[in-house]
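Re: that backbone. Tokens:
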């Protein structure tokens, strides 16, 4: 090897060593997570102090094994049991910004509908906007949170949800299938349509939702719409079911005449209306209702 070649080889070795040192110096977890706004949020390392302002996000963080990193939640987050002891910082729509700041979070998880996203960012807090609205959204949120947390089991959590929903569907006898269902979210009435995560679960259970996807995921209905829809089965929260039979014209509905109404407890409603890790449990609750009301 000539003198010049030796010099070139030595320089190449030095450059390679410097490159390896540079790579070694980079944070091991540096990632950019794209949220529901299409905004890329960078994380040099997994956040250790998390505030979650949506029950489904709280439950998802815990399902991914990071419950211990939560330092604050919204007033409605109550599962798993351990999160009940955490500081509550208001609701998803009306959080207490000062209380959130005082918790010194590495990241705040909140819904797209929250009104404080920009204010939190102006105060220097990192914000990740995630709001699952259907089954695909739940899977996407789990993936995003898994990426942020450095957890590699997001797909395992999703597969468990999917398997549980499928098991609930298989548990239904042939005579229970194909029923026309009305799922009421609120006595206004707001309903769960076909395109909602609840509607998608009903479809997987081989039920026929009387509220089509064209009306949106959770439309507000004219009560007469439900009368015309004439469902075979009504699913409703106990707190909203008071006087249901006395609503104008509702005595003509088949489900009311035949007393095929599932009245869910507050604890069951918490499971049913949250698009997250407990959707499999929600499917089991709905399936049991369908079987009970088919006898």
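Recovered sequence:
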């Amino acid at each position: 090897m000539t003198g010049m070649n030796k010099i070139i080889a030595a320089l190449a070795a030095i450059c390679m060593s410097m490159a390896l040192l540079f790579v070694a110096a980079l944070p091991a977890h540096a990632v950019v997570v794209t949220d529901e706004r299409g905004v890329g949020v960078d994380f040099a390392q997994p956040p250790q102090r998390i505030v979650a302002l949506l029950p489904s996000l709280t439950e998802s963080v815990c399902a991914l094994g990071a419950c211990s990193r939560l330092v604050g939640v919204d007033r409605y987050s109550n599962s798993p049991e351990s999160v009940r002891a955490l500081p509550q910082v208001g609701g998803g729509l009306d959080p207490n910004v000062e209380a959130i700041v005082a918790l010194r979070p590495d990241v705040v998880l909140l819904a797209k509908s929250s009104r404080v996203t920009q204010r939190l960012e102006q105060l220097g807090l990192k914000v990740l906007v995630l709001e699952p609205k259907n089954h695909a959204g739940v899977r996407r949120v789990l993936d995003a949170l898994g990426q942020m947390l450095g957890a590699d089991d997001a797909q395992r959590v999703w597969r468990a949800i999917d398997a549980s929903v499928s098991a609930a569907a298989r548990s239904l006898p042939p005579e229970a299938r194909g029923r026309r269902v009305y799922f009421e979210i609120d006595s206004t009435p707001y309903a769960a349509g076909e395109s909602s995560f609840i509607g998608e679960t009903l479809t997987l259970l081989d039920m026929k939702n009387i509220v089509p996807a064209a009306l949106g995921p959770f439309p507000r209905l004219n009560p007469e719409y439900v009368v015309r829809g004439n469902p075979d089965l009504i699913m409703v929260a106990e707190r909203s079911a008071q006087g249901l039979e006395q609503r104008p014209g509702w005595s003509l509905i088949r489900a009311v005449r035949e007393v095929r109404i599932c009245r869910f407890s507050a604890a069951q409603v918490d499971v049913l209306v949250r698009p997250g890790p407990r959707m499999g449990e929600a499917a089991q609750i709905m399936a049991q209702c369908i079987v009970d009301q088919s006898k």
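The mean pLDDT is 91. The chain has two domains: 31-152, 172-292.
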